[in-house]
Design brief:
single chain; mainly alpha; about 0% strand; about 45 residues
Length: about 45
Amino acid sequence: MCLKVVILESAEYDLKELRDYIVKNFSLETWLKTYGKIKIDFAA
């Protein structure tokens, strides 16, 4: 079974804020790893 996921505009904004925070305080590499995990969770 395949479900369509709709991400709310406010959630997209939160994700962008999270990205900015992680890149600023950690690294782009950390963000890429974190985002990869997020994408996997949404795909499941």
